[in-house]
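Note to self: user wants both folds in one dump. Writing first protein now.
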Amino acid sequence: MKKSIFMFLLFVVIVSTAFSAVTLQYWFWDPNFRDKEQEMINKFEKLHPDIKVKLTALDPGSYWTKLAAMAAAKSMPDVMAMHPNSVEDLADQGALMDLTDFVNRDFSKDDYFWSVMESSFNIKGKYYGVPFAWVGSVIYYNKDLFDKYNVPYPRPDWTWNEFLEAAKRLTIDEDGDGKIDIWGYAFFSRYAVFDGWILQNDGDYLDRENMRWDPDDNAKETIRFLYDLVHVHKVSPHPKDYDLDKKKIKLIFSQGKAAMISEGTWNIKFMREDIPANFNWDINYFPRGHIGKKM
């Protein structure tokens, strides 16, 4: 009798466990997208009623610090948003699950952005992540300034020469005191800036065969072009003069002190709501370099 009762209780425990919902901890780095993330979670939970997802959306400034601490403590979230730059470090710490079998089983190279998988999430022949969003860098431009000084708006297939001509016409000393009040373009050293320029000139930072830092001639030409915007053409301020960083570059644009800047598309919501400008603005592709492929 006691054995029968024990077996029954064991059965109840097994059945209860089998039918109880699994709760996954999902961390994401941007509270601005909390609502969109939750919409996707709701749809997922509807398709998989036995799985619940608890979303934690942290500010980018604290996200990576906390994630690193959790990795060191061997207590990571079940699912997390990951920057490609951090994948290798976390994989080396044993903090990420090897997804290779799932990737090989469920993904088709013909139906997916396989180059992204290979370049960002393939570490020593094993996959540790799956891209879920595609973002890039763009040129933000002040349409009112373009209109005021009769400068044509950027076209999707514009070139370096057209960009430079626009930047020259929009670099203006409004009060005639010998100091520039509006810069045609402003930038600082940041991947979100340089990547777009270099890619549009068909350049690369890396020697891909040996996976080491070795900018090719097209990348060097691009860097020289950006250098000349400051030192030769004088259509862009020296970043140190304004102590430019990823926040200040957006501020001088919102204040109308720069007709164009380059930043990531992930800042569109920030530009609309957090530092709204009192002028019309839009975005456009980076201009094509001398070697860049026509879009």
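First done. Writing the second protein, which came from a different request thread.
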Amino acid sequence: MKFRYQNRFDKERRDIMKTLAHAGVSAGLLRACSLVGGMMVARATEAQAGPTKSLLLFAAGGALDELWRPSGSMQLGPMSEPYESVKSQMNFVAGGTMSPNAAGHGVMFAHFTGNSFNEDSFDVNIGRTIGANRPLRYLNLGVQCSATLLSRQGTSGVPTIDSPASAFSLLQSNLGGGGGGGGGGGGSDPRQLYVDRHKEALTVLRQKLGQHEKEKLDSHLASIEELESKIVDTGGGDTPSTGSSCSSVSMPAGSTSSFDETAKLQIEIAMLALKCDITSSVSIAFGEDNHQFTIPTYNQVFHQSHHCCPGTADYTITAKYMAGLCARTISRAQAEGILNSTLITQVTDMGDARAHNNVNVPLFVAGGGGAIGRGKVTNASGKNVKDLYQAVANVLGADEHPNARQWSTSPVSL
């Protein structure tokens, strides 16, 4: 008799359990080492056509359409110039809108929920659908967001994790139960090396896995140790560094007291989580929509660039900086070999920040292999951010899951 699966996610889960049983991996080992679960999900999805991961970016401040929208020959404007090296991987979605009361300051949750008070935000719903079988359902990272409730699971707000050390500790923890804002036990000290803490479990694991999984495990652990050394040596932004066995590793300039350095560390956390198959859904908020933060290229509060003076010079500085962070994220995903399996979606808080309006909102989708058009401009023709979310969810196959949120009946054509 042929077994009937509820959907492809149910089949994926059952295939994973079969793989674990055949490998002799016990439930105890699975709980002890979250990498096992992530690797097994990755194995089950390797043959799946299309992207299987999502990275959602919030870039504060919007942009001026006439300075951001690429021309027909993909000539970039002053505000989109940082995308030059990665534009071939991008689908620029121009002419989009957002709900009128979602544009402007003080409504952070609206940007990821499509202005809903009681439904999942995009990152959470993707985690609950395509990421339902991953060790960690979703990971919500922020840069100077003050743990704002940007994300939402149903009626409950999910705070951003602004500390790279806290985010990394979450990845270290026992992630068997999933969830984005907490969960898992152990690993409260980010200076306690992951490999040392799980030495016994990893030794057993190597004896049980095939060569393919062993190679993936070694690659994952190398990434973990490299990132861990960076967080340890900078103190993780929470406490001064006390040194570690990885202190000889060359460190990037700056520390987590800087917006820029924190943003770069959070990008690395995102890369680690996705590359190591710990989660299928990561979000990063570069700042909050009140714009009360400072960046290296602008010596005043970010918000001032939109209202300080005639002309567009100051606004261009801050818009270019945000584009630079997003471009860096795409480049890092490409360098880590996960861009084709990941859809990177960027949203913001308004169109023209000088007017706090909700039209000509600068958006993009990148990566995804051949699942979307790349190196092009898509004219959204007034469609809403929710129409973009629906399009991305459809490409990822999230709409096939019973927990899928329906964002729109007229998705943007990517």
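Dump finished. Worth passing along: Residues 1-5, 174-195, 231-254 have pLDDT under 50 and may be disordered.
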